[in-house]
Amino acid sequence: MPILTQNLVDGFILPPLLLQHQRFSVNTSMEPAVVKLKPIEATPETFKDFGQVVQASPDGDQFGPHDAQLDLSQGTPRFYIMHLQDRDLKFSKITHHASVTQCLGSISGDVWYLGVAKSSIVDPNADEKKGENVLQSNSGHLFKPPAVDSVRVFKISGPKFLKLNRGTWHAGPLFKPDSMDFYNLELSNTNVVDHTSHDFEKENATVFVIDE
After folding, report:
1. What gap in Å lies between CA 23 and CA 126, rounded to an integer?
2. What are the pLDDT digits (tens) for 117-130?
3. 14, 53, 111, 168: most buried, per Cβ within 10 A?
4. What per-residue string of b and e applies to 13-42 under the rule 16 or more CB within 10 Å gives b?
5. pTM for this entry
6. Cβ proximity of 112 and 181 under 8 Å
7. Collapsing DSSP states into helix, strand and coil, what is residue 127?
8. Closest listed residue to residue 182, CA positions, set 173, 192, 170
């Protein structure tokens, strides 16, 4: 199985092998290429293309841009504690929600990881919708599948949470312990009617491993 290592902090250069996977149809009999990703520490600056990193603020602070900028307008909000088990530091599938922002945070404050790619939702009124590689989701919106070289991995440490922009692709939470608990804010039916996924192993003959 080929292993391809990239340091995303220093910049990403797509290896020729992955270019082949993207340029030509995938031979499903091939073993997938393994792309090893260096995690980036999640800060408001490093994560700004994907959403927000929200950290503790003094009691009494007024609402401002440092707070989570939420869009829960298209349904009933659901805030709950999510128990996850056996989420090793590897992934091949990635998901987005087109109708809601999402907040994720560790209850314990222990280290966890999230794979992400920028939103690729296509405006139905734009000329872009007529271009190549535009798909329609089961929920009706248009999008472009994420590219292999667009994927990043972030490391989240301590008492903070992530707010994902609408449409941000994400894989995880992932972590080293056997299990962890996370608080999750989305809509009551997000995982039923607004759950669009891309399978890199099936579509791009690629799997990702977090190099940590």
Report:
1. 25
2. 999 999 988 765 55
3. 168
4. ebbeebeebeeeebeeeeebbbbbbbbbeb
5. 0.85
6. no
7. helix
8. 173
